[in-house]
Amino acid sequence: MAGKDCIAIACDLRLGMQSVGVSSNFEKIFEYDSVYLGLTGLATDVITLSEEFRMKHNMYKMREERRMEPDTFANLVSSSLYEKRFGPYFVGPIVAGLNSKTGKPFICGFDLIGAIDFAKDFIVAGTATDQLYGMCESLWEPDLEPEDLFETISQALLNAQDRDALSGWGAVVYIITKDKVVKRLLKTRQD
Amino acid sequence: MPGLGFDNYKRNQYLADHGVPMPTATSTGTTIVGCRFNGGVVIAADTRATAGDIVADKNCEKLHRISPNIWCAGAGTAADTEMVTQLESSNVELHALSTGRQPRVVAVLTHLKQHLFKYQGHIGAYLIVAGVDPTGPKLFSIHAHGSTDVGFYLSLGSGSMAAMAVLESRWKKDLTKEEAMQLCADAIESGIWNDLGSGSNVDMCVMEQDKPAKMYRNYRKPNERAQKEKSYRFPRGTTAVLAQSVRSLVDVIETTPQSMEVDA
Amino acid sequence: MEILEAQSTASSQPIEHRFNPYSDNGGTILGIAGEDYALIAGDTRHTTGYSINSRYEPKVFDVGDNLVVSANGFAADGNALVDAIKNRVEWYHHAHNKPLKVQSLARQIQHLLYRKRFFPYYVHTILAGLDDEGKGAIYSYDPVGSYEREQCRAGGAAASLIMPFLDNQVYFKNQFDPATQQYRVRSYLPIDDAIKIVRDAFSSATERHIHVGDGLEVLIVTKAGIEKRYFPLKRD
């Protein structure tokens, strides 16, 4: 979710095999310096891709001798996913970050083959997308301050995951501003 | 960049056979149209992208630039229209550089159809290609299997029927630029209102002989959301937090204010 | 234009033809119960596939005796069920010469649905009325008659979008009150607040669900009778 000079990205902590819960400490958000990537979907692909992006991100930094901007990272994700057009990774990625030059919030989402969805407001992904769309579309408003954005994104995630059998078991939220990143572990239902 | 990889294909087939649902790719349900007029050509599109019954993107861009004077409207699988169009854009640039000539629409058309035919329709891109080149204004459509059509007015996508109804009833020979723009925008609006796969805004691009192409992003915005009845901002502290950690991105330098010595 | 039509495979094996008796006409409904009222709201769009059949086809009905019913899903089944319900209410009057109570109609609807257990009405049903104490009551059903009394329920195409929002704004789920160090407990909403939440729920669903839109019709039950209100929604 985008706010006033800030962004927030959140995920649940459940890892499951269909209806059986396996882990309640599976974070789906990955940091690449100041770019944040949320990756839902098949766990093996989540891990494979997060590591592949880690490698590609480091290669870029070494070659270019500068940091990667969020929009650049988004295009990297897109082309990497499309490379596997006919044997795709089963993932639903989200990219969020602040542009280091302009300080402008950047958020975007992708389908599993790399079609980018640039949004000004919010992006959702995973098994509870319907619920999240309903929550975000009604709760979100423009220009929220970091602390207000935290409440909005948290309530959106919490209530959405409670209506999805495959999501939950804890949640984490990152609130990203130009001078600090706050990570919070939320109190959630454990069923 | 290597070619398209099939590495995960067998695994995904296995997963599908064992009841793991395939995630849905976003498709641009879509209404797209193109129309020729005296001295140029115009293309237009709606801006809704869907994933099943859900609207994934309310204001996406379906008009793609292939070269400064050749533009392309895309329907079908969102990633395919985007990527096939980017690939063509890069090839056209290289071709123009190596031949030292202006890119031509027919060259783009031929190259795109050969690429799509090669993939036997598996690349789900349905395109309306339009542009001006040294041989004049051109307007074509391409289907995912590689077939192409030529026309004075064309429409594609789930809203093509609604759009074509407008085009068929109002199109005439020798339209002016303004008339063509009006007609295309109305055809797209017909798709927006009457086809559930299309919605939100109208994007448009006008290409005229010997003039730079002009892109009108959100040429019409007939679907802005009204003010909500209520604000759903929560009082701070509403969400229960178990733990918190802070990563500081700046060094905070403590400075003690010192009194300045001022000499008279 | 199909230039190359694949040759149909030789008729060595028999071809099975099937009639599908069901279709989906989209739309969404929502019921909320308050201290002295109950309401059901429904959008007025009627669809099949990517087409709009009607922009105003009401699906929330006054069935008499200050009771309101809506059955969302396959419209033909929904209308048939509502007709059957109206019929039951009428015959109850002939037999007993007194108004039908909401809890009694609730049980009647269960029987109407369950008697078609193996060829069900393809609908999500919601019933609204006032109980013996004059308090608002919402009953909701699955297609074969399993039901429950609740304070709020969303049904139909965008139910999954609206229901978590209702949990949050009607039941105050996940809302912690830092002053009391307790989670907020549910209470009845004033009617004006409920209408606002209903309108925002539907305008949000219209934004993100292609089968929801055109118009919103709300039927509000109070002891004074049934009030019908209409609000336009986006038409794209």
From TrEMBL, chain A:
It is found in: Nucleus. It comes from the Eukaryota. SUPFAM superfamilies: N-terminal nucleophile aminohydrolases (Ntn hydrolases). GO terms for cellular component: cytoplasm; nucleus; proteasome core complex, beta-subunit complex. Coiled coil: none annotated. GO terms for biological process: proteasomal ubiquitin-independent protein catabolic process; proteasome-mediated ubiquitin-dependent protein catabolic process. Keywords: Cytoplasm, Nucleus, Proteasome. The 26S proteasome consists of a 20S proteasome core and two 19S regulatory subunits. The 20S proteasome core is composed of 28 subunits that are arranged in four stacked rings, resulting in a barrel-shaped structure. The two end rings are each formed by seven alpha subunits, and the two central rings are each formed by seven beta subunits. The catalytic chamber with the active sites is on the inside of the barrel. This is Proteasome core particle subunit beta 3. It comes from Sugiyamaella lignohabitans.
From TrEMBL, chain B:
The lineage of its organism: Eukaryota, Fungi, Dikarya, Ascomycota, Saccharomycotina. It comes from the Eukaryota. Keywords: Cytoplasm, Hydrolase, Nucleus, Protease, Proteasome, Threonine protease. This is proteasome endopeptidase complex. Its main location: nucleus. PANTHER family: METALLOPROTEASE TLDD, PROTEASOME SUBUNIT BETA TYPE-7. It catalyses: Cleavage of peptide bonds with very broad specificity. The gene is PUP1. Pfam families: Pr_beta_C, Proteasome.
TrEMBL record, chain C:
Coiled coil: none annotated. GO terms for cellular component: cytoplasm; nucleus; proteasome core complex, beta-subunit complex. It comes from the Eukaryota. It is found in: Cytoplasm; Nucleus. CDD domains: proteasome_beta_type_1. GO terms for biological process: proteasomal ubiquitin-independent protein catabolic process; proteasome-mediated ubiquitin-dependent protein catabolic process. Transmembrane segments: none annotated. InterPro entries: Ntn_hydrolases_N, Proteasome_bsu_CS, Proteasome_sua/b, Proteasome_suB-type. Keywords: Cytoplasm, Nucleus, Proteasome. Component of the proteasome, a multicatalytic proteinase complex which is characterized by its ability to cleave peptides with Arg, Phe, Tyr, Leu, and Glu adjacent to the leaving group at neutral or slightly basic pH. The proteasome has an ATP-dependent proteolytic activity. Component of the proteasome complex. The 26S proteasome consists of a 20S proteasome core and two 19S regulatory subunits. The 20S proteasome core is composed of 28 subunits that are arranged in four stacked rings, resulting in a barrel-shaped structure. The two end rings are each formed by seven alpha subunits, and the two central rings are each formed by seven beta subunits. The catalytic chamber with the active sites is on the inside of the barrel. Belongs to the peptidase T1B family. This is Proteasome subunit beta. It comes from Sugiyamaella lignohabitans. The lineage of its organism: Eukaryota, Fungi, Dikarya, Ascomycota, Saccharomycotina.
